Amino acid sequence: MPKKHHPGVTFRILTDEEGRALFDEEAQRLLGISGEEFVRRYDAGYYDDNPDTPEVIELHLMLPLFRRVTVP
Description:
Helix content: 40-55%
Oligomer: single chain
Order of helices and strands: HHH
């Protein structure tokens, strides 16, 4: 499948460190907590009663940035 060109949009692959830093910045901006604290709470079910808030949804979608594993 040919790649589509998106005028004005630049894509960049993040390193693991950059991905975690971005996730942490967003957790701080959205919820006022670290990315690590969000993941701890998320995994413990803290957000189960109200999972549909925009902030939780956005961070849920970004979880691969935090949990990414580099394959050698």
